[in-house]
Amino acid sequence: MSFKDEILRRRTFGVIAHPDAGKTTLTEKLLLFGGAIQEAGAVKSNKIKKGATSDFMEIERQRGISVATSVLAFNYKDKKINILDTPGHKDFAEDTFRTLTAVDSVIVVIDVAKGVEEQTEKLVEVCRMRNIPMIVFINKLDREGKDAFDLLDEVEQKLGLKVTPLSFPIGMGYDFQGIYNIWEKNINLFSEDSRKNIEDVVTVDNLEDEALDKLVGEKPANKLREELELVAEVYPDFDREAYINGDLQPVFFGSALNNFGVRELLDCFIEIAPSPRAKESDTRLVQPDENKFAGFVFKIHANMDPKHRDRLAFIKIVSGTFERNKPYMHVRLGKKLKFSSPNAFFAEKKEIVDISYAGDIVGLHDTGNFKIGDTLTEGELMNFKGIPSFSPEHFRYVNNADPMKSKQLEKGIDQLMDEGVAQLFTLELNGRKIIGTVGALQYEVIQYRLEHEYGAKCTYENFPAFKACWVRPEDVKNEEFAEFKRVKQKFLAKDKSGQLVFLADSEFSIQMTQSKYPTVKLDYVSERI
Ligand code: G4P
């Protein structure tokens, strides 16, 4: 197969959902179709069970599993599918945001009874801002849920999407009979007896045909006809370009647990979802089929084995091919590095490979060279844009609890920050260190990992900040800026890359600052480049 065809057949995507909507179940069913796993239950849920805040074993277990399920790759028909795992737990949302910089499209899973939930809103907003193509899968149709039209309205309003259903349910819950596939124009009947993996696809060329009444009963058949008429009137026809541009989102209905509607989703997905897309760097737009390799780090994972504390850096290949033992330029460090054992992912395993193509993810063993957002090339000096660093919501001073281990503590904090577990700020006034996190759970993870991986101990102390605002531009000559720095001295810090940050204690204080010093620009997001 030619180099270009290899790239064109790749589909790299993420499944996003509010916890419990069925992300793990759907992922597992997709893998079953790809023949990548043989039985249900092979993909372990990486979610942190409720009440796990103080259960460190649970955190370790979760980390172990999330290494294994970070990338799930398999072949389906003539396509190579790469599913990137996105943690649903809100305390790990930042990890998910970063993973979304490495996907070419997403599938959004929504629970038919719960509708659009909080985490779905946040994640979809990020995808919308980046025009990532999205397909919506409405799950758990075997249960009583919301009316299909109401749900489509909710998706449009709460998520700000423009949808078009490509399948439509016939009944729901106890009355669930199956799904009419608008895309393929056939009916998939749900088997009442088994409620298992039995699928019965009936082609219906003409909806007016009496065969439909015989299949599902006269009343449901008429209801379906009316509903499909309404669908045709209310929703736009599917338009692939609009979908690819992020302007239109096709919707499927089904039940992941019952493996129902999943094949339809997958078959349509491989047909319409984009192959690897071009990515903007700070100097130019990089096309996937360029001959030269370029890629970036979107995730770093510490090794679970305490004897081998090296890390695995996950690289999304943006262009060309990544080859084993070939020297690549680490742009930030300005030096060439060779990798003798790059890992590729297959199902839930990883293995060493000689060559990977644009769209693929490779895992590189790292002894501390990488941080999130780093770019690798064949020599070109450019950096990929768009790895965001969001304002933390929690802030605590970090204190050394074991003076004999200050080096270890420093190293541990440094490496954990490079992994993107949390963000470190150093106060301008006295050099004290503050750790900012998206969720409170991270503090326990950090404390636990510092002790178990680096032999260091820390304690925390509250720092009364509400948000971190990145200050830009840093114009030293500007008098207003000098005044701002003088007055807010106690709340100013530097982040790890040396950027100035204002640790505001309230929304009010941000507003006051903005009106008093209008030329000092404050930003909740820092885009690492
Ligand atoms: P998540 O990764 O999005 O957090 O969700 P996950 O797949 O773990 O699914 C959450 C729960 O919803 C699981 O039940 C799962 O079995 C169930 N589920 C998923 N898809 C369907 C569906 O189509 N119909 C129905 N009725 N249930 C579905 P659980 O009891 O929380 O977990 P488990 O003990 O079954 O693993």
UniProtKB/TrEMBL annotation:
What CDD domains does the record tag this protein with? RF3
Keyword Transcription attributed: no
BP GO annotations: regulation of translational termination
What main location does UniProt list?
A: cytoplasm
Q: Which UniProt keywords apply?
A: Cytoplasm, GTP-binding, Nucleotide-binding, Protein biosynthesis
Q: Which residues bind GTP?
A: D85, T86, P87, G88, H89, N139, K140, L141, D142
Q: Which PANTHER family match?
A: PEPTIDE CHAIN RELEASE FACTOR RF3
Protein family: Belongs to the TRAFAC class translation factor GTPase superfamily. Classic translation factor GTPase family. PrfC subfamily.
Note the HAMAP family from the entry. Answer: Rel_fac_3
Function comment: Increases the formation of ribosomal termination complexes and stimulates activities of RF-1 and RF-2. It binds guanine nucleotides and has strong preference for UGA stop codons. It may interact directly with the ribosome. The stimulation of RF-1 and RF-2 is significantly reduced by GTP and GDP, but not by GMP.
Q: What is this protein called?
A: Peptide chain release factor 3
Classification from the root reads:
Bacteria, Pseudomonadati, Bacteroidota, Flavobacteriia, Flavobacteriales
